[in-house]
Design a protein that fits this description.
This protein is of the alpha/beta class and about 250 residues long. About 40% of the residues lie in helices and about 15% in strands. The chain has helices at about 15-20, 80-90, 95-110, 115-130, 150-160, 170-175, 210-220, 220-225, 235-250, and strands spanning about 1-5, 25-30, 40-45, 50-55, 135-140, 165, 185-195, 230-235. The chain has a six-stranded mixed sheet. It has a two-stranded antiparallel sheet with strand order 3-4. Helix 2 (about 80-90) packs antiparallel against helix 3 (about 95-110). It is globular.
Length: about 250
């Protein structure tokens, strides 16, 4: 049983969906502390001048330490600006007309919505458009205690995981506590993803954009292209070496 656990992010990049696609169960980690100006509330689209941020305004003042599932959207009117930016930059994409109206409907429903609800609703829609069938769960509904690595391990054990595929961005803190996940029957590996090239407006090609970029430009071929970037996951020892090499290079 392969499991991945990650925070629900806004308009995620394609590597996020590669992680979902290669596991049996994907758990949205919604009961940990929210980080302001993180991927949880913003992402990027491709424009003639490069990548442009789209940020969801949230209520943060006076709520330091709030959990992801407690964050409320401050102004639902953000959707008009986001949709206008998407339309301006993707209206000439081959599959823009196929997806834009549905995207607009989902964003306009954000009024009175928690950020986590909007993000999960969008991720589910993207999965349907891509054809990804992975089972989704929400960590706050699983009743597991603990912080950081302990929480991830408890979730894995409660679901009968045999392998936990972690986002590479979580490697630093996981490797500090390898005795926790590796002390169980769960094998820890790290996602290895190399961003594939695809059709894109406004050359040169820019990786790391929202999944919107791939979907608007490639349509039904998006999942095949997405999967082409997948590589054999990194074992912990190899990731540790990569982090050390990067640190020495700074």
């Amino acid at each position: 049983m392969k499991i991945a656990i990650s925070q629900p992010t806004y308009l995620p990049w394609i590597g996020y969906f590669d992680l979902i696609d290669q596991v049996d169960i994907f758990v949205f980690l919604d009961d940990v502390q929210f980080e302001k100006q993180s991927w949880q509330q913003r992402n990027r689209i491709k424009t003639p001048t490069g990548l442009q941020w789209l940020t969801v305004p949230v209520i943060f003042r006076g709520r330091f330490g709030q959990l992801i599932n407690e964050v409320e959207i401050r102004d639902a009117g953000f959707c008009r600006a986001h949709l206008r930016a998407v339309e301006l930059n993707y209206r000439r994409a081959r599959f823009f007309d196929r997806y834009f109206d549905e995207l607009g409907f989902l964003l306009r429903c954000a009024e009175g919505t928690r950020l986590v609800d909007l993000n999960i609703r969008l991720i589910e829609w993207f999965m349907d458009a891509l054809g990804i069938k992975t089972r989704l769960l929400i960590s706050s509904c699983l009743g597991q205690a603990g912080k950081r690595t302990e929480l991830l391990t408890n979730i894995c054990n409660s679901l009968g995981a045999t392998q936990y595929i972690s986002p590479l961005g979580s490697a630093a803190y996981l490797l500090e506590q390898t005795d926790v996940p590796l002390g169980t029957d769960v094998e820890l590996v790290f996602q290895h993803y190399e961003h594939p090239r695809s059709r894109q407006l406004f050359p040169p090609f820019c990786p790391q954009a929202s999944i919107l970029d791939l979907l608007f430009n490639e349509g039904a071929d998006s999942l095949e292209i997405l999967r082409s970037g997948r590589r054999v996951p990194f074992p912990p020892g190899e990731v540790g070496g990569l982090i050390l090499a990067e640190t020495r290079a700074r």
